[in-house]
Amino acid sequence: MDLQIRPAELRDHPVLAALMLRLDFGHREYDGMELSVEQLDAIIASEHEAMIMTDKPLGFVHVSDANSPHATASHRMYVNNLYVFPHGRRKGVGTRLMYSAFDWGREREMTSVRLHVWSKNAAASEFYAVLGFEQVGDAREREL
User: Fold this and answer.
1) Does domain 5-114 have CATH number 3.40.630.30?
2) What is the pTM of this model?
3) pLDDT tens-digit map of 106-117
4) Which residues contact 100 (CB under 8 A, 6 or more apart)?
5) Which of 73, 91, 97, 133 could disulfide-link to 128, CB 3.0 to 4.6 Å?
6) Rg for the chain, CA atoms, rounded
């Protein structure tokens, strides 16, 4: 699949907002997360967060470094959200997004990455295991 991975821009708001609304947290009834233009602008402007996406509207990953409110350790990157539209799954889109996120973390001298997966999301658990994540309490973690 010919696909470019790049940082999000403000012009991407409609696509990212639609993707965020598709998030399924699985642990409760949830209609998704709304992403305002202001929130996206803050992420884009931040030195401590990134929204990385595909050039075609297939998916995104939102990450934070150790200086963000999501941080749990000074060397650890956190994956806030990863979403790939169903028609982009099992085609390497999620993997390419995650490897771009890993590069972003390494550029900021992060040494590990942490994320959470809802227990009912077996496909995501399998995906992250293939990427080398190990279960650590209720989270998954791997070295960068």
Assistant:
1) yes
2) 0.84
3) 999 899 999 988
4) 5, 52, 61
5) 133
6) 14
